[in-house]
């Protein structure tokens, strides 16, 4: 058996080219970045502690700067310039990711710490009916029922309209009508939530007269905000479906509508589901349109969207925050209920996203099937 060796390309004089030789130089050990980060944090932390200026934010920023400088210099000496630039940019990307995660982690931690003081089974299974502000009682069950009913009805309105609009724009639309629909969808995307609430209030007053606030009006207001998000996300997912799949279906004699139902939609179902969940997350925390349309005074459990006012989690949080200025125990109890309701709302959104992931996983087409 013969072995071959790879030699660097030779230059005009027969010597290896400098750039090719540098590509064959050594590399840093795999543990070096982690070790350098640890050493940088220890050194920076020691210096800050020595000068009595220790702070977590200063430690993180200075450690990142020292690490980036160190990894760039070490990679330039041991490896080559190209690898050094790659390591430096990779470190910058990780730093940016860490900076972006700081507000999210801080928010979740704050809500978790403050919300767990009252978050329990009792809080989730009782309403505020008959509870006065100074009582250490009451829960959020009526707001959970209202939130699920209002957002569910809003999704029932928005998803078919948004999905069919996206199918028209991608599969059938052409000319000025398509341009007009695209323009109005873009305009609706930027509508403030309070404007949607005022629109539904005016519409409700024209049809049913003044003072008729209920959950259905709140759901319609949320659907005005939700439809353009569903249209945009579904449209982008449908455009990602390869044209080869459509052409193969047409070549077998399958009509266009059946191709959309059997080929296009199943292929894009994962992205469409994620877009719908993003639209739900967009509207489930809206407060202003629900204050105007669904009301703010409901304390009883109401599962009927068309009868009386209906409480929701965002409005409940707003109501309790307003009561935090009360004197005595009433303000303390209101603050605890507000944090616990905020934690409940976050958990509801997380459950919705988990459901969406399961739906996209089990219903998306699988390779090799």
UniProtKB/TrEMBL annotation:
The keyword Transport applies. Residues 144-356 form the ABC transmembrane type-1 domain. This is Phosphate transport system permease protein PstA. Part of the binding-protein-dependent transport system for phosphate; probably responsible for the translocation of the substrate across the membrane. Its main location: membrane. The chain crosses the membrane at residues 31-51, 57-78, 90-112, 143-169, 181-207, 213-231, 263-284, 338-359. InterPro entries: MetI-like (IPR000515), MetI-like_sf (IPR035906), Phosphate_PstA (IPR005672), Phosphate_transprt_permease (IPR051408). It is a multi-pass membrane protein. Keywords: Cell membrane, Membrane, Phosphate transport, Transmembrane, Transmembrane helix, Transport. SUPFAM superfamilies: MetI-like. It is found in: Cell membrane. Belongs to the binding-protein-dependent transport system permease family. CysTW subfamily.
